[in-house]
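Second attempt. The first submission of Probable chorismate pyruvate-lyase had a stray character pasted in from the spreadsheet, which I only caught after the job came back as garbage. Lesson logged: always re-copy from the clean sequence file. Corrected sequence (188 aa) follows.
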Amino acid sequence: MLSKDFDTAPGLTIPPTHWYRSLAAAGLQNPDVHGPALHWLQVEGSFTKALQKKCRSSFQVNVIREGFAEPSDEEARRLSIPRRQKAWIREVQLCGDGQPWVLARTIIPVSCLEGRGRRLLNLGNKPLGAYLFSSPDWVRGPLETGLCQPELPNQPQLARRSLFHCGQTALMVCEFLLPALYQPQHPL
Ligand SMILES: C=C(O[C@@H]1C=C(C(=O)O)C=C[C@H]1O)C(=O)O
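This time the job returned cleanly.
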């Protein structure tokens, strides 16, 4: 998989994550889901749009890496694709006002890349959400809540994900929330 030579803070990476089918189920394990991140765990429409609304100056998508790679076994199961089958995997930082707010990982099975789906290979710094929410072909499934097991200090603790269905195929968007998004900022 192609990694961009991107100047990312150490540890600003995606940790192992346990996924729950509902916020309530995750909340039984970790009540933090009901804290300041709650709003972001529940945003239903385009996450990109919601982040853009919060920005004072700029919103940016920085591609960390993208290319064909094997999803994890758990991801393959969730997407009902054969284990070890390569998919197009895209990892980005969503930045507001120059600060990383979200790390996003999207798994796009080869079946989604046929026909009009081919353009998913060439998104670059254009947000995926703009494409998914502008096309009636894509229908979002229910949101899941993720509890991360951070191994490094900067790693996210809470996440959300959902499948987007297009006919018989589906891709999966996972969004890992960084504290800079939801913790109250203290003025210097
Ligand atoms: C799915 C959306 O797209 C956003 C954009 C992404 C990208 O460009 O890779 C990844 C995750 C999302 O938060 C959305 O806006 O809801």
